[in-house]
Amino acid sequence: MTDAVNGASILPLDLAGVSFAAGGRRLIKDVTCTFEAGPRTAVIGPNGAGKSLLLRLCHGLIAPAAGRVVWRGARGRDPAPFQAMVFQRPVMLRRSVTANVDAALALRGVPRPERRARTAEVLERTGLARFAHQPARVLSFGEQQKLALARAWALRPQVLFLDEPTASLDPAATHAVEEIIDAIRGAGTRILMTTHDLGQARRMADEIVFLHRGRMLEKAPAADFFAGPRNDLAQAFVRGELLWWRKRPSRDPATEP
Ligand SMILES: Nc1ncnc2c1ncn2[C@@H]1O[C@H](COP(=O)(O)OP(=O)(O)OP(=O)(O)O)[C@@H](O)[C@H]1O
Ligand SMILES: [Mg+2]
Fold it and tell me: What does pTM read for this prediction?
């Protein structure tokens, strides 16, 4: 599929001093970084680190309590139509597989003949064509995950946020989903994903962001990160050590509440 671009890129994405709080807790703490066009990014970190929240902040689904999220390439354009997101637990409409893709395109104002063409194309490319007329909710979990990707791909986003795209999938389904993500990327879409799976981060990312308790403790090229993270908590995470038992050193701002 071509023309994921729809004009000039909205990237780079700048986060400047971004914080988010809810329920009286600071959940994302003073994140400053730039996501450039090009590399695939994996956000990693333990459960509850704030990975999903960070993606939601980037995608504009929640507003920061402090700081700014700026699509520097947007230059006055609304960045929303250039992005899509696949959620950690995608929700399917109680309609057919085809209608699920069609509805997403209709929401974006894509005319009907074009919707038909794009829907057929993404179902073919994700291996779902044979399910086109089945109710989406009878699909297996792995098939629903592919449908969620197809739905997002049909929008031809410049930037695609993927929140744990293969959580609870078996190795075969994980492989299939990773192939779809590669194809989306090959068509020109910038991938920003979260994952628990370090193997997946090695396979799928050019750049790693390590989050811990709402702080971005490291952002590095994947090769450098996996050769040896600079941050000691990131090192422990890569070694597979659980982080929750670690005594909090009082001088380490990364672990302060
Ligand atoms: N709306 C909210 N109100 C209160 N707390 C929230 C809210 N959303 C998220 N949290 C809390 O923020 C923290 C970070 O949540 P988030 O879902 O981003 O973590 P995560 O890194 O994606 O974890 P996981 O690996 O389990 O998906 C968690 O402790 C969660 O309970
Ligand atoms: Mg999450």
Answer: 0.93
